[in-house]
Each structure stands twice: as structure tokens, then as C-alpha cells.
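Q: What structure does this chain adopt?
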Amino acid sequence: MVIHWLRAAAVLLVWTTGASGQSLPYGPLTVFDGRLTVTGQVDAIVGPADDVAFFNYTDYEHNALRMLQLRLAGRYRPAGWLELVADARSEDVERPRVYAAYVRVHPWRNRRFDIQAGRIPPAFGSFGRRAYALDNPLIGYPLAYQYLTSLRPDAVPGTADDLLRMRARGWRSSFPIGSAEAAPGLPLVSAFRWDTGIEMRWAAGPVEAAASVTNGTLSDPRLSDNNGGKQIAVRLAVTPRVGLVVGASAARGPWLSRDVVPASAGAPPQTALGLDAEYSRDHWIVRGEMVWSRWALPFALWPSTSRDVHALGAWAEGRYRVTPRLFVASRVDRLAFSKIAGTLFAGAPVPWDAPVTRLETAAGWYLQRNLVARLGVQGNWREAGRLRDRGFVSASLSYWF
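A:
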């Protein structure tokens, strides 16, 4: 009820400011002669409930198409070579969580090189680094960054059938080894959490590179270590011409908790590879990304001899600016899984989780430079589950300063 009142208040605020000719303040806020910068963001998304299919469920157990997100971030620069960055977010008026908190050091003034330590931006991929609402022209998220598989860091299947029974159950999966409680699974890459560690970034001319060492993994970023291992992630991006950026990423790190696999036994890793590209020209911007992930398991899933499972997520989106205020955007998205064979499905090999296809389109209107309203339609098709097909109509209002 509180959420609906807040959303109604936001809509009313927009209507009244528009009617009176006033506008919401631009940002950011700066104090101490510009050394401290404060920014904020409010994203109010209204859409139907999804308590059966859970297509847009997130790893924080919220509906990405039915959510109120509040964000407050600050950046303090006590010296030219040093920055302190913090970012706190709240979803559906819950207790705020620390999204980012890190120190950034610039050792050389005339070189594009820095070191970041703390809860840091991801080195892998492109979508996870987007900070503001205007960076995502759609309301929903790409499947690779949001959709929950059935895999969990605190519980594992004992046989192939244990895993196959959880197809399309990423929103609440359970396995016989490890935690006995049902809980949400993992995405390929989490868009809702940043990892903790250290990162180095370097750029020269058209080339940019980043490398990080963190406590968690792409699918399970963590504040503290849960298995004694570290993930290494790298990304290389090239701008061969104006408007075109092409990047490649790789990451590898242990993903299972020490409560499931003792440290002495060796922690099975998550290994990921990624490709991304962006091209902008005139009124167009086109983006695409591909993420391949492999999760190693502590033992073979009988009767199969395989000791790992794979997933591949790929999406492409485009945005066209019709007028300075009006834009339209669309995204096509696919998430596929490797096959395993158990005794279910007559022993035939089937994907270990249910493949998903998503199409989404939206139109947006800039009420002012930092206030945008969107109306979107999303369709989802899945090859298993209690509800295999589901469409959503949603609306959002995003304000930032």
C-alpha cells in the first residue's frame, strides 16, 4: 500500500509541476567548492503482479516491472588523486543497501589509469556498469542480467533428475545437498549487486582495459568471501571509429559456499566469457551483448558423466530518438541452456533449465532533461514451468539529479 501511495504521489508531482510551468531541480548537488558531489535517482515502475511465472523476479526477490527504487550517491574528492565514492539503494521502501562504496586512486595526473578498492563497479560486460535510468531505454532488464536460474551457491543437486525437477523454478529452487530451505537461484550476471575487491582501469587512445579481483562471482557478488577463493575478471574495449565500441570480457572464480564444498576439496568455479558492442549515429543507438557461463559442479550428475552445466544469454536492443523529447526502443533477448540426461523425460537429453525468449518494446517521453516517463510491453516465452507464456504492460517514471 505504501508503494502505491508513493507512486501516485510521484505522478501527481509531475502533473502539478507541468501544469504550473515549474520543473524539478537539475543536479548534481555540489558543496565544498565542488569537492563533494551528491546525486540521486527515483525509479517508480507500475506493472501487474507476477506470482506464478516470475519472469522478472530478481535476486533481491523483487519484481523488476513492479518496483520503486530510490538511490542516493556521493563522491568526495579531497585531493586531485583521490576519490571516495558511495551509493545506497532501496527497493520497495525496504532498508537501504550499500550498492557501491570504494576508494579510487589516480596515481598519475596525465595518464588515464586508476585503482579502485571496495564495493566496486564490475569489470565484466557493459550492461552492469550503467548507472542511470537513461542508460536503459527499456523498463525491463536483459535475461542474462536478471533472470534467475535454478542454481544456488548454498545447495547443489545430487543427480541429474534433482536439477531437471527445478526447471523454470529459479524463483524458488531446492536441492538435497546443502541448505534444505527453498530460495531464489542465480542469474548469469547480477545487475542488482556489485562485488567487493580491487580493480584497475587503464585507457590509451581507442583502447580501454579493466581487471578486477573480487570476493564473489558474476552470478553471486558478495560483500564477504564465502569460500576462500577469489574471482578474476578482465575486459578489453576498443573504439575503432567514432560511435562504435566493441568489448570482450572474461571471468573465473569459485561460486559454491564452503558449507557445500569444503575448502580442502577445491571450490568449483564459474567461468564466463562475454562480447559486447555499441554503435551510435544521428538519432540511433544500437547495443548487443552475449554472455556464456559455465558452472562446475563438485561431482557428476548421475546418470550423466558431466560435471558442469552451461548457459548462453544474448540480446540486442535499439533506440531511436524521434524528437528531442520522444524516443522508441526495442530489445530481443534469448537465454539457452546446455542439455543433460537423467531418468526423467524418458532419459532423453534436455536443457537443464527452461530456455526463455523475451521481446520488449517501449516509448519514452522526456518531461524535462532529467525526468522521463516510459510505457512498455514485454512478452516472455519459456519451454517449461507452470506458466510458459506471459505478457506485461508496464509504465515507469524516472527522475535523477
